[in-house]
Structure formats: C-alpha cells, structure tokens
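**Fold in tokens:**
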Amino acid sequence: MFNALVKYFPTLDAKKVISKIRSSRGFTLVELLVVIAIISILATLLLLQLGVARAKARDAKRIADVNQVRSALELFFDDNGGYLNTNVMGVLSPTYLINVPNDPLATCTAGTYNGAPTGTYLSCYQYGYSTATSPSKFQISANLEQKNTNALNNDTDFTAAQLAGWAGAGRPGNGPVGSNFELCNQAAQNTCVYDSGQP
C-alpha cells in the first residue's frame, strides 16, 4: 500500500509514516480521567432530573385517580341516591370503574381508601363521607410528592370544620390560618393534599 502512495507522492517516506503511527499511542491517563469525570457529572445530573420527572408522573397519576374516582362516585350517586358509605372502593368496580386505582408508590390495601401512612409523607388515598346511612357529601384525597401549584389551586380544599363529624378517612385539603395543608414540604403527613369531592 505504501508503494502505491510513494508512486503518487514521491516525497513521502514510508518509514517515517510507519514510525509516526506507532509512536501515537492514544490518550494520556489524565485526558481519560477528565473525560470520565465529565461523563459522570452529566450522568448524575440526568439521574437527578429523572427522579423529579418520575415524582411528577406519579403525582399526575394521583390527580387523575382522584378525579376518576370522583366521577365514579357521582355516577354511583345518580344510581343510588347517595354516595358510597364505606372507604372500601371495591363496590365501584366493575360497574363504575374497571379497576379501583391505588397510590402508585405507597403500599396500600387494594381498593381501601383509609389514608394509612406508608412513609414520612406518603399515605394511601383517603375517602370520607358526611353520614353513615346515605351520604350526601364526600371527599377523596391524595398526598402529592411535588408541589403542583396549578392542581392545588384548582382542587376542592375541604377545611377541618367541613369534615367535622364525617365518617371514613377525610382530611383537610386546606386548613385554617397557620395550618396550611398545601405546603408540600415532605416533612410530615398531609402537607401536600390534593382533594376533590362534594362539600
């Protein structure tokens, strides 16, 4: 091959070309370490953002679940003249819901909306109702992982006074001054409550 190159480029010295190829061994250790460090920093940043995106996706599912169950409860009310008088949501399936949704992260009893805590700030979905015989009011709620201002500004925001005397597991979505349930600080239960229902 070098003979063909020498034919077209007579000043080309084949020995110099071969020695140059052999002398260039690749990257130095410092160059490789710098590239590895840059890649690891970028990977760490990507993984952090991926965790936030997953939390937002779980919150979107929680909001959709609350709204879906609310619609099912409204259909149940139309057929029965009252809302569900138990926090076991299996009654809604399969007539009003194909599957009763559960929190995507919390470990909960399937179909039971009792608000059982499952960690520092997460809990199962909660359902509360106004009277035990034929409920005319209800609340369904979920704890969010991230502050979703748009969703929290457009939810029902039951107060503790509205839920007084209710059965089930209702929880305030917005309390009196000094006890805001929409702080979303992940320090305790019920600090980032998205709720919906019929006050």
Notes: The CA atoms of residues 35 and 130 lie 63 Å apart.
